[in-house]
Amino acid sequence: MNKQSANYCSNTRSRFLYANITISLVLKGWSAAVVLLMVPLTLNCLGAYQNGVWLTVSSLLVWIDQMDIGLGNGLRNRLATHVAHGEWLEARKIVSSTAAMLICLIFPILFVLLIFVWKVNIYSILNVIPEQIPELRLALFSAITLVCMTFVLKFIGNIYMGLQLPAISNLLIAIGQTLALIATWLLYINHHASFFCIVTVNTAAPLLAYLLAYPYTFYYRYPNLRPSLTFVNLHSSLELGSIGIKFFWLQIAAIIQFMTANILISQFFTPEMVTPYQIAYRYITLVMALFSVICMPFWNATTDAYERGDIAWIWEANRKMSLMSICIGFLLVLMVIISPWLYKVWIGNNCHVPYGMTILMAIYIYLLILSMRYSYFLNGIGALRLQLYMTIMTIIFIPLEWFVTQQTHSIFWFMIIMCLCTAPSIFVNMLQFHKILNGTAKDFWRI
User: Fold this and answer.
1) Which of 12, 404, 54, 405 is CA-nearest to residue 198?
2) How would DSSP label each residue in 302-362?
3) Distance CA 359, CA 21 (A)
4) What is the rounded distance in angstroms from the CA atom of residue 256 to the CA atom of residue 370?
């Protein structure tokens, strides 16, 4: 590629990136407003106890979402690579193979989960009083079925991310959240906001958004990528599986370390304790949502730049992300300072969130952001091996949480352990990123 062509690709990539960031910021602002409205609404619908159980159940449902053995992230990386080289036939094979593998994967998962919920004492596992939520098992049947259906269709979002259009993926998520808010509000004003109904509408809404997106995506916008049995290809499946399994383990490790907190809090303390924790989490993670909106487009833009050998563009993008991380830190400090006033306006006297919980949540989220700001680049160039090694922290996370909680009986120490388990990945990701781009990465530091 000559210098003029390289500059054109770099400038086009940057314009595409900034356009997606701008649109995504608007959409994430929309999503953030929906989430903020949903918290007091569901709290009023269900009360602190049932709301805590719903939040715990929603954490369990995340596991289903991540059972794609990394196929979604593998798809977005491979699709970006094929598009960068103009290989549209290979791109369609990747899309078709991903859809076929997701369908084959989800049916046994659905069967096993439904049998599990039917046979085991789900009340004991979630530490729930049966008289408080008699329809818990039925609600889980409904939620699991709907989430498994969404599991297959959500690959549409990965396609848009692979095409460097994360704004469209964010739009689909925002539509699903908005539909859930509207449905929950209608249940509330019509006095039908039972636990079963709240769970069902919140898991059905994302599915509806993807059902609406399917014909637009594959019959109008990108018919050349439409899934077809004709294009299901064993080689493409193996290609996806090799990188997908790495993403899968990273996803599972993240869930174990970060997303099981609701379940652990419900077990180690009470389901009611989940509610203030989640309120603090949803408030502080507004910053992470902002950060993700700005940084997510860098993932596949990095794939494109790395495939074209445009290392200078990656260095410049890294400099901008460093400035962004500093600004995020100041924003978190401000959010912690005003949190007592904001909680009062937001949820009134329905729930008390300790100030120390907000402080620790802000520290935890900032540590996570500092790690993610490098992992977006590393994921984009497929540098996953060292990140896999770092999942050793996952193995010690739950037993460490159990031991510390038994000794202290403190939610604050529970959150301190979360911070300590997150911190090492920051240094490792930063060092690997610089080694790879400087051309000094050897042995396990390589891709």
Assistant:
1) 54
2) HHHHHHTT-HHHHHHHHHHHHHHHHHHHHHHHHHHHHHHHHHHHHHTTS----HHHHHHHH
3) 28
4) 19
pLDDT reading at 404 higher than 60:
yes
- The C-alpha atoms of residue 161 and residue 166 are separated, in whole angstroms, by 5
What is the SS3 assignment for 380?
helix
User: Which two structure tokens, joined as six digits, stand for 187?
Assistant: 């249940």
Specify the range with the lowest mean pLDDT, choosing from 107-116, 362-371, 379-388: 379-388
Of 161-175, 210-224, 273-287, 342-356, the range with the highest mean pLDDT is 210-224
Distance separating alpha carbons of residues 171 and 259, to the nearest angstrom: 23
Residue type, 189: I
Greatest Cα pair distance in the chain: 72
Residue type, 226: R
70 CB-contact burial (10 Å; exposed 0-12 / middle 13-18 / buried 19+):
buried
Q: Hey, what are 342's tokens? A: 């904001």
Mean of all residue pLDDT scores within the chain: 80
- Residue 287 · residue 28 · CB < 8 Å: no
Residue 142 token pair: 């409904």
Give Cβ neighbours of residue 260 (< 8 Å, ≥ 6 apart): 59, 398
How is residue 223 annotated by DSSP? G
The two three-digit tokens of residue 204, written as one number: 């059905």
Q: How far apart are CA 56 and CA 78, in angstroms?
A: 34
DSSP at 190: T
Q: How far apart are CA 387 and CA 245, in angstroms?
A: 13
- Listed residue (125, 59, 414, 121) closest to 265, CA to CA: 414
Cα gap 39→54, rounded to integer Å = 12
In terms of pTM, does the model score above 0.85? no
pLDDT of residue 329: 92
Distances (CA, A) of 92 to 58, 72, 409, 425: 33, 14, 53, 35
Q: CB of 96 within 8 A of CB of 320?
A: no
**Residue that has been written with the tokens 């993926």 in this structure:** 169
Tokens for 245, please give them: 């399994």
Listed in order, strand segments (DSSP E) in 83-182 are: none
